[in-house]
Specification:
The complex is a heterodimer of chains A (196) and B (364). Chain A is mostly helical and 196 residues long. Helix content of chain A is 69%, strand content 0%. Chain A contains nine helices and no strands. Chain B has three domains: 91 residues, Beta-grasp domain (Ubiquitin-like (UB roll)), CATH 3.10.20.30; 97 residues, Translation factors (Elongation Factor Tu (Ef-tu), domain 3, Beta Barrel), CATH 2.40.30.10; 127 residues, 3-Layer(aba) Sandwich (Rossmann fold). In chain B, the strands form three sheets. Chain B has a six-stranded antiparallel sheet with strand order 9-8-11-6-7-10. In chain B, strands 15-14-13-12-16-17 form a six-stranded parallel sheet, sandwiched between helices. Chains A and B meet through helix 3 and helix 4 of A and helix 1 of B.
């Protein structure tokens, strides 16, 4: 299994093993920020970027610090700290060099810190014994997968604004139901490629 | 044992490395150089290091914008007009601004970060606000939950305040200093003293701090704030209506008034629940003996207990206003108390022919 190519892992992470639609990670910001396509694209991009880079950093920290010292049980707390610090850094960076993007992302940027999909991606990569290149592929793929899912959802929700939804289902309930349908649709990709 | 030490040490090391990385990044990335801060079109040009919030930069330059939460963006008091250079409106600000304010470029000073030259407008009055260092002169128990706290000013030694204005007391809290607003109860002519009436609120940061102060303790506050202006025409009658602990501004108004116009007509209506809540009544009755045009009405809203004696009005205070005030007299009114009382009294006063613009209130 460890010799699956990074490209395959990438494609699998986007379609067959979409971190949002098969593992249901990162649901809170998915539901909260999928109202408009524009913000969904912004958040999706930011999540993809953070997920790819934190997968790399966490890979290095796990294999060069935690594993040799027998401290793998610290992985949760260490990964969270790394993600939080990295998001801060990204925030400063974007603020300095692209104020426009900074204001477009606004509150979503710090929200990425608490997006469990990002921690999830780092943990999956360790669990599945990926090597460095595979990890980068998986981190990037999982990010793209998350972004695809939230952009699709935003498109659907924009359309839904004009549909006649029964009163009790308006807002979050219908969003949950649509997510389920979306997840089932993604099961159609199941035979395409497979990873663990 | 070794594994625990190793775990703690390596985690601490990692976190420290991350913190150092962030500090280095902050040092080089969040460096906006010197920015110009222009207040009221050239009235007070300042040059300062960018990267700070507008509120703290102004504060560092002795301009004190009212703020209760200490810059956390949770009170919405620090509204000022930013004409340009403030960047777009942030999602942390929108809950505190209405549409008209958004169109008028009103922003929360604690959320706007200075990144470039910035042009702001601040009411002239706020530019006169100072930070005072004072010493508690006395702390007197007025009722079971209200204390009168008198503070002598050290630096600056004098305050120029109008009745109805308030100060912001700096109170320590576990999350850093916060500011809490209290009306000034000492009269305007006592320019080296600030006196407050403070009701204890269980768990309240400001009131607990103030109630625990002892004689000789030092206090920091900023002020004066507030837009109320007493009508200068001696023929206009002044109506003060207070409830609960809403006495402080009234006391200031009344003493200032009789210092300047000994014959001016003024009514004080004060609503209490029981005789336990009554304070300052004797003082005002003596003042009324000296100034026959001053009328004091205290009313109790709860049923009298068997051990209580009361010969004044009873019922809610707006009923007292309705009963005793004649219609059609030129008046200015100042109300201070709980929202329900304010609404009821405003209705009564409007029926008596006082225009809405002449009714001022402090709801809490």
């Amino acid at each position: 299994m460890s010799e699956t190519s990074a490209i395959v892992i990438l494609i699998a992470a986007v379609f067959t093993n979409n971190i949002l639609l098969t593992n249901f990670l990162g649901m809170c910001s998915f539901i909260a920020c999928s109202g408009q396509i524009e913000t969904a694209v912004g958040l999706g991009t930011a999540v993809t970027f953070v997920m790819t880079v934190t997968a790399m950093i966490n890979y290095a920290i796990y294999h060069f610090i935690l594993a040799p010292l027998n401290l793998v049980h610290l992985q949760f707390i260490v990964f969270i700290a790394v993600i939080a610090a990295f998001v801060q850094l990204v925030e400063m960076f974007i603020e300095r060099f692209s104020p426009k993007l900074y204001f477009a992302l606004g509150i979503f940027l710090p929200l990425i810190t608490v997006n469990c999909a990002i921690l999830g991606a780092s943990l999956f990569m360790i669990n599945r014994n990926y090597n460095f290149v595979q990890s980068v592929g998986f981190g990037f793929g999982a990010g793209v997968g998350w972004a695809v899912a939230i952009i699709l959802m935003a498109g659907l929700r924009q359309k839904m604004r004009y549909s006649n939804i029964p009163q009790p289902f308006k807002g979050v309930p219908i969003a949950m139901i649509v997510t389920c349908v979306l997840a089932m649709a993604f099961m159609g990709f199941a035979g395409m490629v497979s990873i663990q | 044992m070794g594994i625990y030490l190793l775990a703690v040490a390596s985690f601490a090391g990692l976190v420290m490395a991350l913190a150092v990385m962030l500090m280095v990044a902050e040092r080089y990335l969040v460096n906006y150089g010197v920015c110009k801060l222009d207040i009221n079109a050239g009235k007070r040009p300042l040059e300062l290091e960018g990267g700070q919030t507008l509120l703290s930069s102004l504060y560092a330059n002795d301009i004190f914008i009212p703020s209760a939460c200490g810059g956390k963006g949770s009170c919405g008091h620090c509204k000022i007009v930013v004409d340009s250079g403030g960047g777009p409106l942030l999602p942390t600000e929108t809950p505190y601004l209405d549409r008209k304010e958004i169109r008028g470029n009103v922003r929360l000073a604690c959320q706007v970060k200075i990144r470039e030259d910035i042009y702001v407008r601040i009411p002239e009055e706020l530019l006169d606000v100072r930070m005072f260092d004072a010493t508690v002169e006395s702390s007197i128990v007025l009722t079971h939950d209200i204390k009168e706290i008198r503070m002598r000013l050290n630096d600056p030694a004098e305050i120029s305040q109008r009745p109805g204005q308030y100060v912001q007391i700096q109170a320590p809290s576990p999350d850093g200093d916060v500011f809490r607003a209290y009306s000034i109860s000492s009269a305007s002519f006592e320019d080296n003293v600030v006196e407050l009436n403070v009701r204890i609120v269980p768990g309240g940061i400001g009131s607990t701090y103030l109630h625990n102060l002892k004689e000789g303790d030092s206090v920091i506050f900023t002020g004066p704030y507030g837009e109320f202006v007493l009508n200068e025409d001696p023929d206009v009658e002044i109506i003060c209506v207070g409830g609960g602990c809403g006495m402080a501004p009234m006391k200031n108004i009344i003493y200032t008034l009789y210092d300047r116009w000994p014959d001016r007509s003024c009514w004080l209506f004060f609503g209490c629940r029981t005789t336990k809540d009554v304070f300052y009544l004797k003082r005002f009755q003596e003042l009324a003996k000296k100034h026959p045009n001053f009328h004091v009405v205290y009313a109790l809203s709860d049923e009298l207990g068997s051990d209580e004696k009361w010969d004044g009005e009873t019922g809610f205070i707006h009923l007292g206003c309705d009963k005793l005030l004649e219609a059609g007299v030129a008046r200015q009114a100042f109300l201070c108390g709980p929202p329900l009382m304010i609404d009821a009294v405003t209705r009564v006063l409007e029926e008596k022919g006082i225009a809405e613009k002449d009714i001022f209130y402090d709801k809490f």
